[in-house]
Amino acid sequence: MHPTDFDRTPGRPELSIVIPVYNEQANLPELRRQVAEVLPQVGADAEVILVNDGSRDESAQLISRICSEDSRFRGVHFSRNFGHQAAVAAGLRYARGRAVVVMDADLQDPPRLVLRLLERWREGYEVVYGRHSKRQREGLGKRLAAYAYYRLLRRIVKEEIPADSGDFCLMDRRVVDLLNAMPERNRYIRGLRAWVGFRQTAVEFDRPGRFAGEANYTFTKSLGLAINGMVSLSKVPLRIATYFGLMVSATSFLLAVFFVVQKLTVGFEIRGWASTVVIILFLGGVQLLTIGIIGEYISRIYDEVKQRPLYIVRALENVEEAAPPDPQLFDGPVR
Questions:
Q1: What is the pLDDT of residue 330?
Q2: Which end of the chain, N or C, is less packed with Cβ atoms under 10 Å?
Q3: Domain that includes residue 259, residue range
Q4: Is residue 265 in a domain?
Q5: Under a CB-based contact definition with an 8 Å cutoff, are residues 66 and 32 in contact?
Q6: Is 168 within a domain?
Q7: What does the pLDDT look like over 46-103, one tens digit per residue?
Q8: Which residues contact 127 (CB under 8 A, 6 or more apart)?
């Protein structure tokens, strides 16, 4: 039985494609062309949801024009920039398809691969994600950082986080409804995608460089996303702080015993300020690191307690309302 054979809601398209957009005016015309070429090959009804994440260029006007010219395209406009993960979450909320694809607007996720993702979904997989076999036009430093990050993440997280994969994926309706039902604000979609489980598989592809323009994800934003992924999915950073405390305490105790023995046996005296300064700086660094780690978790508690919305929608185009959750969300079909 196909994973969504139980879901035959009238009027629900076969496929939704969610595309977050932030300052992508140089890429939107080509993106529309390539996506429009793929849609007729889907073999069923499809929709494309363009989420304007508070763009400061002409992206909003281009999205409006695309939506007015092609009813398959839908526009969701934020009141300001809320971030990539919030834009993905909004797209998932408004997507109505039995299968939902998430991809970037810079064409680094080739639209033609949507057909391959659909093939694996129709074979019975609930999550089909793209895995980068090669990254084109990316510096050595960025490739090494991505390689190290994914390996570190896999070691500190209990769930199986796919290495060398991003947000580009296809998710079954049931998976999307589960993600929409999660109340947390600090979302790491690719981590939550792995957390929900179900049958998952990868589609390998060479990730091209941006079609046009400069990358919107700066080093600072990438670092923030990486920290968010580790903190939102694992308690290991807190344990690292504990381990540092135990290590410093044990080292201090051993040094104290050593100095006492030296004093009683050979009359050794500690001289100079260098050792004292080094010890103070080391302890200060450990304390600041520990406070920083704890602060990351507390800041997330603070965000959750405020209960502010994840995003604010300013305008909708070709969209009436958010898709309702599936009635069999937590029950599912019996296989």
A1: 44
A2: C
A3: 236-306
A4: yes
A5: yes
A6: yes
A7: 899 999 998 888 888 999 999 988 888 999 999 998 888 889 989 999 998 889 999 8
A8: 169, 170, 171, 172, 175, 193, 198, 199, 200, 201
